[in-house]
Amino acid sequence: MPLLELAHLQKSYGPVKALEDLSLEVPEGCLYGLLGPNGAGKTTTLRILATLLAPDQGTVQVAGIDALQDPRSVRCLMGYVAQEVAIDKILTGRELLQLQGDLYHLRPSNRDKRMQELIALLGMQDWIDRRCGTYSGGMRRRLDLASGLLHRPRLLVLDEPTVGLDIESRGAIWQVLRELVQEGTSVLLSSHYLEEVEALADRMAIIDAGRVIAEGTPDELKQRLGGDRVTLRVREFSDQHEAERLQRLLQPVEGVLQIVVNRAQGYSLNLVVEGDHVLQRLRQQLDQAGLPVFALAQSRPSLDDVYLQATGRTLMDAELAVAGQRDTKQERKQSMR
Ligand code: ATP
C-alpha cells in the first residue's frame, strides 16, 4: 500500500481552476518531488494533503487513513512546512520550538531531547538562543524544518523548502533531507527548481495546470524520451509558419527522431537525435537552405525536456509567462490608479 494516495483531486478558487484532476501515489521511505512552474497547483495539493484545505472533489489517503474523514489522525503522522511561515520575531528559536512541542503535547523531557537532536542535525547550535527577528532566510528555513520534525512524523511535507536561499543554505537543507530519508522518514517536497528535484528525488511527478503530466524516477522520465537533445535557434525566425517550414526541412535529416516546436521566446526547435555527426548534417542542411544558425547545442535529455515534451514549453518559459501575467496585472492596476 502506498503511504500516500491522492485520487482525482479538483479544486477551484472562484473562477480559477487550481486542480483539474490530480492523482498521485507516494511510496513509503522515499523522497518524492513535485515539480512544476509557479501556479501549477503544488501548494494547493500540499495544503489539501495537510488537511488545511478541502478539495471540491477527490480523495486523500495517508497510510490507509481517509484524510477528509479523519484529519486529526493524519496530522499526527505528518509534519507540514509551508512556503511562508509566520515566526514570532520576539521569541528565540529555542523558545519557539518549545512552544511548538507543547502544541504537539510532547512531554517536556521528550521535547527537550528531540530539540537537542534537531538542533544538532540542522546545525543551529550557534544561533538557536538568538531572537528569530535576527535570523537570515536560511536560518528561518532550518527552524521551520525543525518545527515540522519535532513530533517525529512519518511523512514530512515541504512546500518549496529552499526558495530564495543561497547555494550554501540550500546544500545544507538538501543534506538534512537525505539524512532524514536514510533514517526512514518519507519526504514529499514541491519545487520549481529542476536541479533540486533531480538531486534529491527518488521518484517525482511533474505538475502543470493542476494535473500530473509525467511520473516516475527522474532517470525513467529522461530515458523515456530517448536520444540526445538538440536545441536550435535560427536568426530571423520569428513565427510559427517559419518554424514549421524549418521543421519540414530538418525532419528528413538522418538521425533526427523528433522535432518539437518550442512556442515560447520567439520560437525555437527542440530536436531529439540519435547517432553520430547529426549536428554536422543539420548544419549542412541549414547552410544549403541559406538559414544562418544562431544557436545549436546538443545535450543529454533533462527534466526540462520532459516538461517541454508534455507541454510544448520549457519550465523556465512557463515561469516567465506567469511572471509576465503578474507584470501585466501590475501594469493594469497601476494604469487604473
Ligand atoms: P507557486 O510555485 O507559485 O507557489 P503553485 O504551483 O504552488 O505555485 P498554487 O499556489 O497551488 O500553485 O496555485 C494554483 C492556482 O490557483 C494559481 O493560478 C493561483 O493563482 C490560484 N490560487 C491559489 N490560491 C488561491 C486563492 N486563495 N485564491 C484565488 N486563487 C488562488
Protein architecture, described:
With 337 residues, this protein is of the alpha/beta class. It folds into two domains: 4-217, Rossmann fold, CATH 3.40.50; 227-300, 2-Layer Sandwich (Alpha-Beta Plaits). Helices cover 41% and strands 26% of the residues. The chain has helices spanning 42-49, 71-77, 93-103, 108-121, 137-149, 167-182, 194-200, 218-225, 240-250, 278-288, 303-311, 315-336, and strands at 4-13, 16-26, 31-35, 57-62, 65-66, 78-81, 155-159, 186-191, 203-208, 211-216, 228-234, 256-262, 268-273, 293-299. A six-stranded mixed beta sheet has the order 6-7-8-3-9-10, with helices on both faces. Strand 9 (203-208) and strand 10 form a beta hairpin. Helix 3 crosses helix 4 (108-121) and helix 8 packs across helix 11 (303-311). The radius of gyration is 23 Å and the shape is elongated. Residues 331-337 have low confidence and may be disordered. Bound molecules: adenosine-5'-triphosphate. Residues 13, 16, 18, 36, 38-44, 192 line the site of adenosine-5'-triphosphate. Adenosine-5'-triphosphate (ATP) binds at residues 13, 16, 18, 36, 38-44, 192.
List keywords for this structure.
binds adenosine-5'-triphosphate; elongated; Alpha-Beta Plaits; four-stranded antiparallel β-sheet; 12 helices; 41% helix; 337 residues; six-stranded mixed β-sheet
